[in-house]
From TrEMBL:
Pfam families: Aminotran_1_2. This is Histidinol-phosphate aminotransferase. It comes from the Bacteria. It catalyses: L-histidinol phosphate + 2-oxoglutarate = 3-(imidazol-4-yl)-2-oxopropyl phosphate + L-glutamate. It is an enzyme of class 2 (transferase). Residues 46-344 form the Aminotransferase class I/classII large domain. The gene is hisC. InterPro entries: Aminotrans_II_pyridoxalP_BS, Aminotransferase_I/II_large, HisP_aminotrans, PyrdxlP-dep_Trfase, PyrdxlP-dep_Trfase_major, PyrdxlP-dep_Trfase_small.
Length: 348
């Protein structure tokens, strides 16, 4: 087992901070009988003249039921980007600490490391199956390694990271393991949320931007021990989730059956797209996908990418990513969009 000790990895300045207490923290009950003259808001009701709930309790109570986790173990951010940035700021000392991430993976981890002056160490995935190479990961760990980022299902490769691999890392690493599950709703494997109680060094992040279909409202979600969430709550901007976002999230999450329906439709479409891609002459490889996108290897990614753009279809060229030479990433669209893509592939 590891020697994880949350207290020892919190930045000293963060540990010394007391949470900023906003007007809405000090008096939480929004009660129509009260007169609120505490936050310098405009008193004329237009539906949005009041500050939003800083702890987003209505959103969290729905998520708590959906995901079977205590509301106190949930932190919401302005997209996953803010959630991930808060983790860097809470635990990584600039110009001193480092983090490790698998590669290729989601580009924001590197951007946020740079922004926070934290060294970013890449551990290449195995070329054979896009799984992490455990010994390579640990060869990069030193006393200043605070976090390891694992994205599962991984973007851009599409595959889930095997539970055994994640366990090996979680059990041995003394810092935090961040499991980014932006695409977990498309996978057949279960989320790691259910394991948080067993592994206090695990942080799971999810988002409403993909399967739930709300990329426009910017809502990222973190699940972790209450101790970790408390640290992050202390440093987050008080009103980081705006009222419109909270209301829309509640509306859509309250009708989760619809989300599951569209997810299933996307999965059916993915299957159809995979089948159709096998018949395209220049497609050399279709990687297995547990997400809502498909990574393919083609004869010449730059050429095929540009040909598609000329026909008005934009996919993602991953040619410059590690292990992704001549690879293109295709998001699964509607049936009509996917058919258009295949027709176009056949003519170029
Ligand atoms: C799309 C994506 C996200 C979502 O980020 P948001 O800021 O919540 O929109 C997070 N992680 C990965 C790996 C992604 O691909």
């Amino acid at each position: 087992m590891n020697n994880f000790n949350l207290d020892s990895i919190i930045r000293p300045n963060v540990k010394a901070m007391k949470a900023y207490s906003s007007a809405r923290d000090e008096f939480q009950e929004i009660n129509d009988d009260f007169i609120f003259l505490d936050a310098n808001e405009n008193p004329f009701n237009n539906g949005l003249n009041r500050y939003p709930d800083p702890l987003q309790r209505n959103v969290k109570s729905i998520l708590s039921k959906l995901k079977n986790v205590a509301a106190e173990q949930i932190l919401l951010g302005n997209g996953s980007d803010e959630v991930l940035d808060l983790i860097f700021r809470a635990f990584c000392e600039p110009n001193q600490d480092n983090v490790i991430a698998i590669s290729p993976s989601y580009g924001m981890y590197h951007v946020l490391a740079n922004l926070n002056a934290v060294e970013y160490r890449k551990s290449l995935l195995s070329e054979a199956d896009f799984q992490p190479k455990i010994e390579d990961v640990f060869s990069k760990v030193d006393d200043h390694t605070k976090m390891i980022f694992l994205c599962s299902p991984n973007n851009p490769t599409g595959e889930i990271i095997k539970k055994e691999s994640i366990l090996k890392i979680v059990n041995r690493f003394n810092g935090l393991v961040i499991i980014d599950e932006a695409y977990i709703d498309f996978a057949t494997e279960p989320s790691w949320i259910g394991e948080i109680k067993n592994y206090p060094n695990v942080i799971v992040t999810q988002t409403l931007s993909k399967a739930v279909g709300l990329a426009g409202i910017r809502l990222g979600i973190l699940y972790a021990s209450q101790e970790i969430v408390d640290v992050l709550n202390k440093i987050k901007p008080p009103y980081n989730i705006n009222q419109l976002t909270q209301l829309k999230a509640i509306e859509i999450l309250n009708n989760y059956r619809k989300v599951i329906e569209t997810t299933n439709t996307i999965l059916q479409q993915k299957q159809a797209l995979e089948n159709a891609l096998t018949e395209i002459s220049f497609v050399e490889k279709i990687y297995p996908s547990d997400a809502n996108f498909i990574l393919i290897k083609v004869d010449n990614a730059n050429k095929r990418y540009n040909q598609l753009v000329e026909k008005g279809i934009v996919i993602r060229n991953r040619n410059n990513d590690d292990l992704c030479k001549n690879c293109l990433r295709i998001t699964v669209g509607t049936e009509v969009e996917n058919q258009k893509l295949i027709q176009t592939f056949k003519t170029i």
